[in-house]
Amino acid sequence: MPDDRELADTRSSQQLLSNQVPGLAAADELVLSRQSETLDSEDLLVSKPMGILFWLAVGWVGLVVVLAVVANLLPLPNPDFQNYSAINASPSLHHLLGTDDLGRDLLSRLIFGARVSLVVGFCSVAIGMLVGGTLGLISGYKGGRLDTALNAGSFVLLAFPAIVAVIAIVAFWGQSLFKVTVILSVAVIPLLYRVVRASSLSFANREFVIAARTLGATSARIVFREILPNVVPVAVTFGLITVAGVIVIEGSLAFLGLSVPLPTPSWGNIIAEGSSNGELSINPYIMLWPVLSMFLLLLSINLIGDRLRQRFDIREGLL
Amino acid sequence: MAKYFIRRFLQLVVVAFIISVLVFLLVHLLPGDPTVVILGPNDTAHNRAILDQQLGLNLPLWHQYVIWLKGVFHGNLGQSYLNHQPVTTTIKTGWPIDAELIIISQVIAFLVAIPLALVTSRRPNRALDNISTTGTFGMLALPPFVIAPIMVAVFAVGLHWFPATGYIPFTQAPATNLHDMILPSLAITAGSIAVYYRLFRSDLISTLQEDFITMARSKGLSNRRIMWRHAFRPSSFSLLAAAGVNIGALIAGTFIVEVLFAIPGLGYSLVQAVNQRDYLVVQGITLVVAVAYVVLQFLIDFLFTVVDPRVTRE
Amino acid sequence: MNRRRSPDDGATLEFPDVVGPTEPLLVVDDLHTAFRTGRGTVRAVDGVSLSVDRGRTLGIVGESGSGKTVLARSIMGLLPPRDVITSGTVHFAGHELTALPLAQLRQIWGAELSMIFQDPMTALNPVKRIGRQITESLRLHVDMDGKEADATAVELLRSVGIPSPEERVRWYPFQLSGGMRQRVMIAIALACAPRLVLADEPTTGLDVTVQAQILDLLAGLQRERHMAVILVTHDLGVVANRADDIVVMYAGRVVERAPTRTLFHDTHMPYTKALMDSIPRLADPSGTRLTAIAGRPPDLIHPPTGCRFAPRCPYVRDKCRESDPPLRTAASPDHLFACWFPLVNGISTAPARETAVIGPAATPPVGTEPDAGVTPP
After folding, report:
1. Which of A174-188, B56-70, B158-172, C313-327 ranks highest by mean pLDDT?
2. Which chain A residues are Cβ-neighbours of C300 within 8 angstroms?
3. CB-CB under 8 Å, B234 with C106
4. Do A170 and B274 touch (CB under 8 A)?
5. Contact B197, B138 (CB under 8 A)
6. H or E segment to which residue B182 belongs
7. Cβ neighbours, 10 Å, residue C248
8. What residue in A sits closest to B120 (Cα-Cα)?
């Protein structure tokens, strides 16, 4: 079809319209924007490379993911195996991070515990993005009754305090990795819907979209070829930050004993086990490793998200 | 103004209603006979029959809901099957403790975040700003369940400055109470400080770039006057918004420190009830906390209209 | 207004009530302002000198990017404290502004020297009532209590033509129309009866009819108070009837300066002529193409050698590209211009071209003789 061919030549008709009208020259612009006391360092960051911290963060996240994935292949003792001859052992060559009060290897529990955090974190956001993001994308562009209804729905869902709702549902429905993931996906859907919708809406009335419409593009085409590519940076960045948020919720749940059922390890419940008054004085290592790992993981994800936000120039208010 | 208020209030009512329906339905998520579940496996058939009658369990669902809702409005949220204590009593004794924790932590958070942001926003990217930005960024990676154990390990077990567990009511011994609450409050505060500081500072910086700030300068106003009279107010809206968004995290944090420090607030009771399968208690606390949350959001929204003249008049 | 509050900080500046009739109120001498940016140093104001007498109006005209806003801010001293390099002097009512510490500058700002900003929507604090924004100035600089200040604010609003000022004084900026907001700005700027008002594009963004009203208002108030006004604008039409003298700026420099009449009748600088020609005239039939000046303002980080207008000038010659024309006096002593081959009676004095002209060859504006002996490439 002739339409398709024409449109196929342009990556996006946005480029057709990116003619820059010679605007304010440097000086006036400078005066009008530089009324704060200093140079806006964000100006300079966009062109800078991501920085070593960023890559360290990526490295840590990558390490955790890889270890969690190949956990079964690693030469680790079973995380549930209780070795009564090595209770509360300090870190040694045999048990690199030591053992807990039931003789279980802490390194093994740490790595297997990572699985829960990561699976819940990434899966629920993935599902949330698939459902909520798609709905938001379409809803933001189309508007109309669908948009109003979905928007109201998301408003209601977001009105619930997440932690209380999750605890209640877990209490009545039961604990399992699957159930926790599902519950958190549902919790995350309205959030992602909202953000993607806002972004989609902001592009829906731009000239390049109108141009595409007048060229005869179908709605589906517009949504997926014109709007989606522009929404992706916001979606990815916010999605990442949401992953951090979900990891925190799951960790909190696990700490309260309400995530995956024991003895399956999750960083949250290992911390809880290691934090009872007695245990802290006897063997602080139990709590220490997951605390450090969780801190570094959250720090890394936040750092990556923050750098992405700067790189894509997304204003902090939106997130 | 009134129209806006009424509209928001109606939204509040609708949401509260939906919450009540969902909370009511929770019990029906459970497999098996609700009476067994509610009363526990060891109660008598006689009592179960009575409960059956009371809740109208053979009636259509909507009817059961109405009965239940009526009960709620009469202050009847059922009772714990273990100690037969009415749920409302548990809630009444528990919520002031939560309130105390939240208030202390938020006061600390504002006292730290606001002045710090006011100072660093005027001199961005200098030493203090960089330290603060890094520090608060780190705080974002320290949710209560991560930082509290460390605090306990260092300050309670290690240094013995504060107790690791235990609670004394404020009315009984105010000084001890406050002293004991420091560690749990601080554990919750970190996240709040980070959120408030970052948002407030960011808002201040962008406000300071506005034309009306230059105009204020051109009138000869001193920097201090400009900060307080011109920059603070427009930027404070983001603080209010941040507070609203932060409440959810606050609730989660409060629950966690209550469990860790064995402080008998709603969170502690809730988690205990879940572990003991005390479903009516779970249901009751969930309902009350959820509705309280919604009401709080509404109040904050209302506060917005009071503080920002543009919201209702435009 | 003669009563001044003593400031909380620093010494009070003395301001003689009457400046000698032969002494200009404001003298700017070789002012330079440059900004350090990631891309280089932007020389926004590159050697500007001018003066304004008491009670007179000076128009500063130039395109966006000519540096006129920076000039206005530099005159006041209202620049960001970091990454800004300035030199030159600004003499105002017996004081050397560039040498004053901030505390003393603040005594002048708003009280003797004030500024009207371009966009009233962003220049007024959106969450402060307009009355407060006026009384703020008053209470800072003038010895008044709250009640007096409130009453004065109402009177000020009345004097700028805002109806029902007693009511409107409690309004917020967003409740007013654009024109009214600009009037409020004028009220604020004039509140403490300054001797000099810098009006930075006071009418941009307003309807044409409202523009005229605002300018008339300003002129009226000026006459009343015997104030000096500097009117900064990109629109020659705005200053045509209202300025006593006009300074034309281009790329951070003054390229022509003359009393208004002289400027219009005896234009020397081709840029000025081009500006005039780009003003749409009512007399022209509808559908007349607007004459724009081809090309863009030069890069102020690396300004070209030679005349800065050379790349866009229809009369450019080699000499123009090689050396920078200095500011010279014309036939009448208060007419300055910077051009090697000025226009005289509308005709260029540039000699016949020896070589082909490369670059945007804009057709010479109507009214001038085309160059004789042009050899096409």
Report:
1. A174-188
2. 25-27
3. no
4. yes
5. no
6. helix B174-208
7. 27
8. A37
| pLDDT in the model for residue C22 | 67
Q: What tokens were used for C328?
A: 């010279």
Q: In this complex, is the C-beta atom of C122 within 8 Å of any C-beta atom belonging to chain A?
A: no
What is the reported pLDDT for A4? 32
- Average pLDDT, stretch C364-377? 43
Determine whether the interchain pair C9/B212 forms a contact, defined as Cβ–Cβ distance below 8 Å: no
- Do C109 and B218 count as a contact with CB atoms less than 8 A apart? yes
Query: Hey, are the CB atoms on C127 and B308 less than 8 Å from each other?
Result: yes
pLDDT at C368: 44
Q: Which residues 223-242 of B have a C-beta within 8 angstroms of C?
A: 229-230, 233-234
φ, ψ of residue C92 in degrees (nearest 5): -135, 120
Contact check, Cβ <8 Å, B219/C126: no
How much is the pTM? 0.79
Q: What count of Cα atoms within 13 Å lies in the side-chain half-sphere of residue A89?
A: 21
Whether C89 contacts C173, CB under 8 Å: no
Scanning C59-78 for CB atoms below 8 A from A yields 64-65, 67, 69-70, 73
ipTM: 0.87
pLDDT at C58: 93
pLDDT tens for each residue of C74-83: 999 888 877 7
pLDDT at A284 exceeding the cut of 80: yes
Sequence-distant (≥ 6) Cβ neighbours of residue A51 within 8 angstroms: A307
pLDDT of C8 > 90? The answer is no
Q: Looking at residues A157-185, what average pLDDT do you find?
A: 90
Assigned token pair, B18: 């939906």
At residue A229's C-alpha, the angle toward residues A223 and A230, to 5°, is 95
Predicted local confidence at residue C15, as pLDDT = 61
Which residues on chain A are in Cβ contact (under 8 Å) with C65?
24-28
Residue burial A128-167, b: 16+ Cβ < 10 Å; e: rest: bbebbbebbbbbbbeeeeebeebbeebebbbbbbbbbbbb
Rounded CA-CA distance C150/C166 in Å is 9
Interchain contact, B150 vs A291, CB within 8 Å:
yes
Flag if C37 and A26 touch (Cβ within 8 Å).
yes
Instruction: Identify residue B51 by its one-letter amino acid code.
Output: L
Which residue in the set B26, B124, B141 is minimally distant from A38, CB to CB? B124
**What phi and psi values does residue B195 have, to the nearest 5 degrees?**
-65, -50
pLDDT band at A66 (very low <50, low <70, confident <90, very high): very high
Given a cut of 70, whether residue C233 has pLDDT beyond it is: yes
Cα separations (Å) of A123 from A161, A188, C98, C159? Answer: 21, 11, 63, 67
**DSSP string for residues in chain A:** -HHHHHHHHSS-TTTTT-PPP--S-HHHHHHHH--SSS--HHHHHTTS---HHHHHHHHHHHHHHHHHHTGGGSS---TT---TTSTTPPS-SSSTT-B-TT--BHHHHHHHHHHHHHIIIIIHHHHHIIIIIHHHHHHHHH-HHHHHHHHHHHHHHHHS-HHHHHHHHHHHH---HHHHHHHHHHHHHHHHHHHHHHHHHHHHTSHHHHHHHHTT--HHHIIIIIIHHHHHHHHHHHHHHHHHHHHHHHHHHHHTT-SSPTTS--HHHHHHHHHSHHHHHH-THHHHHHHHHHHHHHHHHHHHHHHHHHHTT--GGG-
Q: Does the beta-carbon distance from A28 to C82 stay under 8 Å? A: no
Instruction: Write the residue in C108, C114, C119 that is nearest to B211 by C-beta.
Output: C119
- CA distance, residue B2 to nearest chain C CA (Å): 19
Tell me the mean pLDDT in the region A247-259. 93
First to last CA, chain B: 10
Taking CA–CA distances from A153, the nearest residue in chain B reads B15
